[in-house]
Backbone:
């Protein structure tokens, strides 16, 4: 069942009871009494505000024993539904697991639930932290729950509800598969509560949940509890993006559209530098325009928002360095958003939260600059910051003691930091490969932070004016709710052995075919199948229309096609030969040759200034560059200097004459060009262009063509009076048959795609003795305990004893290669590595990866499909080695050239994988397990240990 709710919050309980009959009043009283007896009634009493219709609808469905998918905008209060699941679990004596995609969200939810239900009833499980894990309510990251399900953990006993917050994360390319694994493998007795941002295909996702989890109610609310107003800040003026049209239809503000048109016609600074003359009127108009239109600076934007009463604000900047620079710019500009009392509150809280940080580390971490910004009410927030620093910023912002935050888009992912306003500096961001426009979904996610429920009556999204901005495009982003949920599910090696161990190969294959990825693929196949059916009906009609009473017209049509294909092939070969001859002729040209350009825009007499480069490779400013052939630079008789292309020479060209090019000739000088073009006309203007004789067509002497023509003339259908009419139907039949074959190949490619990938993975694991039919070998059981992108590489390193005999710090360096990925993938600098045994072990890991890569190629397992082992990255090995060896933070960060937040995050991931190595190490290798635990102790100190659980 799908419920679409967009009504504003409210209730009809105030209806005049005197309008009801006595029987109706009695029935209403009975209904109220029944409602008071429900778990929802006692739950509502815990809150000092009324619930919205969508929250009530979802809670009622949960109490009725159904699963729910709630899709609602950021800040609309959908987590209330998750908290009701917690309430139900406690009331029924069951457990509830509350899962989140990131540790920071887990920490936040743990704090919220502990305050409401008491610390004794709430536990926390993340990759590196365990608090009260046997509690009836446990908050955890989704990966922890996945690992529990595969391990058959006893903690799952008595589990009644699982809340999956931010379930739209299953679209995430790297981690999304975990969400699907959990949804598929949770016991049928567990009720699933899925909380998602507004997605455009919630109904499709709900259909899948209904298929794999049973009765699931989909509740979509598009109502924002705090209305959002969109603006563009250009110079000193804040433009509304929309103006209300007839019938409340939103139209782009005509003033803003006029500004964009005016800016588009204004010459740019680079145009003026090129010497383009501007009339006095243009200059005057530009002076007036410049006085009111510019992209405001960051301090200017904050001051403007402050004066308009639009703080606190989050400014999204898609760069960590730019976030830090923005804070510095505001400090240099003398911005102060806090009064003296607020400054003291900030200092007290910061000193309390950072008391455990050793004084010698404070300077390294940029503590004093960070504190100065906080005291003024200004801060940055990004993944490169120390987790403790980020948490302090979040807490101060929620308390209203930080009023301007400059953040990367990671802040939009679920952290509870609502603001009155959100500012977007640009509508373009780096996506890891190129600068691309942000999508409507990303825009909705970012601006969803604007408007604090219960505090603000409206939220504001402000986009800074940029030259070339298109208001219609911005209106499209702001007015579209297109955020489709797309599965990123792919089988992995670890998943394969865990599934086979629990269910056997056949049942595992069936389970994978129930994934959302396959559900979406199959759904798309339905539409293609219908098209194939329509095509087949069309083919039958075409076949009937081309039937000839004299013979088999299909055979006759095939002969005609073969003849046409042969003639086309010969024509293409002839064209290739002529181009090759033309290229050879061009390569013989020299500066001073007078030629006749046979065709193209610059056809006619020309003087060769530079013959260009021959075909092949040469070293250019971008390294090696490929050239298809010479591209001569010529001067035409019309005084133009142009570099010609090979397409200008369809036939070979010969020099008509020779001319001396003066040493003083300057192709940029109009006078030089005029003089040389005049000399060219005098020297060769009277010479007629060489006429190229047309060659005898290759088809005239081709035996295959002669055979096909004879067969055509001898065919009975050749004499049919309706031959050409039949031929037209035959051509349509052939074209539709070709299209239908392509569609059938697409269906074949999409059907059972997940299962086929699983089959290839199983085949490789069988070849490597991880699996024997439905049996998981000892090697396979070890692989089942290793999670991560390089699970198979880690297992092979354990199998071959690569890490035996390594000291703890050396083992930490090797483990780092299994998790680390440098932000700059094309970094050509060879990383610094520890010497001795660690260096040899890292080299052996790369060798094993090369062998695995070859095996994957043999079994058609490709990384482009999201499956397979990427090359280990050695870029963090030296930093991990130094830190595990006890070196100081200052020295390690300086050597690693890495922000503290990144360093802590990678250390925690290395700690996680070292824990897996300790658990999976062969029994006879107790030294390896012991050293892995020692390496964890060596890493988990100082800044890594006191950075909370982030």
Residues:
């Amino acid at each position: 069942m799908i419920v679409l709710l967009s009504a504003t919050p409210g209730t009809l309980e105030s209806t005049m009871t005197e309008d009801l009959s006595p029987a109706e009043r009695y029935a209403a009283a009975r209904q109220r009494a029944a409602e008071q007896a429900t778990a929802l009634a006692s739950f509502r009493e815990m809150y000092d505000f009324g619930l919205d219709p969508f929250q009530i609808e979802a809670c009622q469905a949960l109490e009725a024993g159904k699963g729910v998918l709630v899709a609602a905008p950021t800040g609309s209060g959908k987590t209330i539904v998750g908290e009701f699941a917690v309430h139900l679990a406690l009331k029924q004596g069951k457990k509830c697991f509350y899962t989140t995609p990131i540790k920071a969200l887990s920490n936040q939810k743990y704090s919220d639930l502990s305050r409401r239900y008491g610390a004794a009833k709430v536990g926390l499980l993340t990759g590196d932290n365990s608090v009260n894990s046997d509690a009836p309510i446990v908050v955890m990251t989704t990966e922890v729950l996945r690992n529990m399900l595969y391990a058959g953990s006893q903690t799952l006993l008595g589990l009644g509800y699982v809340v999956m917050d931010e379930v739209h994360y299953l679209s995430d390319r790297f981690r999304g598969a975990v969400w699907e694994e959990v949804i598929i493998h949770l016991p049928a007795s567990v009720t699933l509560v899925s909380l998602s941002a507004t997605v455009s295909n919630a109904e499709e996702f709900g259909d899948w949940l209904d298929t794999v989890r049973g009765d699931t109610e989909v509740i979509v609310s598009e109502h924002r509890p705090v209305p959002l107003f969109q603006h563009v800040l250009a110079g000193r003026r804040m433009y509304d993006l929309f103006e209300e049209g007839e019938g409340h239809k939103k139209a782009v503000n005509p003033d803003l559209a006029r500004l964009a048109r005016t800016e588009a016609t204004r010459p740019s600074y680079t145009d003026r530098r090129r010497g383009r003359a501007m009339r006095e009127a243009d200059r005057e108009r530009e002076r007036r325009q410049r006085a009111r239109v510019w992209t405001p600076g960051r301090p200017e934007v904050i001051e403007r928002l402050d004066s308009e009463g639009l703080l606190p604000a989050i400014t999204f900047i898609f760069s960590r360095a730019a976030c830090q620079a923005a804070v510095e710019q505001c400090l240099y500009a003398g911005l102060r958003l806090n009064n003296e009392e607020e400054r003291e509150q900030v200092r007290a809280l910061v000193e309390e939260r950072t008391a455990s940080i050793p004084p010698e580390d404070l300077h390294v971490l940029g503590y004093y600059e960070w504190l100065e910004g906080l005291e003024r009410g200004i801060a940055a927030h990004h993944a490169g910051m120390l987790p403790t620093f980020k948490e302090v910023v979040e807490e101060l912002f929620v308390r209203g003691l930080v009023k301007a935050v400059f953040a990367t888009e990671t802040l939009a992912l679920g952290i509870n930091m609502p603001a009155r306003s959100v500012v977007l500096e640009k509508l373009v961001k780096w996506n890891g490969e190129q600068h691309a426009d942000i999508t409507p979904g990303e825009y909705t996610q970012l601006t969803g932070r604007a408007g604090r429920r219960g505090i603000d009556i409206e939220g504001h999204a402000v986009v800074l004016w940029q030259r070339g901005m298109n208001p219609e495009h911005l209106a499209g982003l702001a007015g579209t709710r297109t955020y489709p949920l797309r599965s990123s599910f792919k089988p992995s090696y670890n998943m394969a052995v865990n599934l086979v161990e629990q269910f056997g190969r056949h049942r595992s294959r069936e389970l994978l075919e129930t994934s959302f990825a396959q559900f979406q693929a199959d759904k798309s196949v339905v539409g293609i199948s219908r098209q194939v059916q329509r095509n087949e009906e069309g083919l039958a009609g075409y076949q009937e229309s081309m039937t000839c009473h004299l013979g088999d017209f299909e055979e006759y049509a095939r002969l005609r096609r073969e003849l046409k294909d042969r003639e086309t092939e010969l024509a293409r070969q002839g064209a290739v030969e002529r181009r090759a001859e033309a290229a050879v002729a061009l390569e013989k040209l020299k500066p001073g040759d007078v030629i006749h350009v046979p065709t193209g825009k610059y056809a006619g007499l020309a003087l060769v200034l530079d013959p260009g480069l021959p075909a092949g490779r040469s070293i250019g400013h971008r390294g090696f560059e490929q050239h298809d052939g010479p591209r001569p630079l010529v001067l035409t008789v019309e005084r133009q200097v142009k570099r010609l292309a090979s397409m200008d020479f369809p036939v070979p060209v010969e020099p008509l004459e020779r001319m001396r090019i003066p040493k003083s000739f300057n192709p940029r000088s109009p006078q030089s060009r005029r003089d040389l073009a005049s000399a060219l006309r005098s020297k060769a203007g009277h010479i007629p262009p060489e006429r190229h004789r047309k060659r005898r067509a290759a088809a005239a002497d081709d035996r295959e063509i002669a055979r096909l023509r004879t067969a055509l003339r001898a065919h009975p259908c050749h004499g049919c009076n309706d031959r050409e009419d039949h031929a037209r139907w035959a051509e349509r039949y052939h074209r539709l048959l070709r299209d239908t074959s392509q569609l059938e190949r697409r269906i074949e490619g999409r059907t059972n795609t997940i299962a086929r990938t699983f089959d290839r993975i199983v085949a490789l694991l069988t070849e490597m003795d991880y699996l024997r039919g439905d049996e998981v070998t000892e090697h396979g059981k070890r692989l089942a305990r290793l999670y991560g992108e390089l699970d198979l590489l880690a297992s092979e390193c354990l199998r071959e004893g690569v890490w035996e005999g390594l000291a703890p710090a050396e083992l930490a360096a090797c483990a780092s290669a299994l998790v680390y990925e440098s932000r700059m993938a094309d970094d050509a600098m060879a990383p610094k590595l520890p010497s001795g045994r660690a260096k040899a072990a890292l080299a052996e890991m790369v060798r094993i990866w090369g062998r695995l890569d070859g095996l994957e190629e043999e079994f058609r397992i490709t990384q482009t499909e999201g499956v397979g082992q990427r090359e280990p990255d050695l870029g963090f090995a030296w930093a991990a080695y130094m830190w595990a060896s006890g070196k100081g933070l200052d020295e390690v960060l300086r050597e690693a050239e890495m922000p503290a937040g990144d360093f802590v995050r990678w250390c925690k991931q290395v700690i996680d994988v070292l824990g897996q190595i300790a658990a999976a190490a062969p029994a006879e290798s107790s030294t390896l397990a012991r050293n892995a635990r020692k390496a964890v102790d060596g890493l988990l100190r100082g800044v890594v240990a006191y950075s909370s659980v982030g």
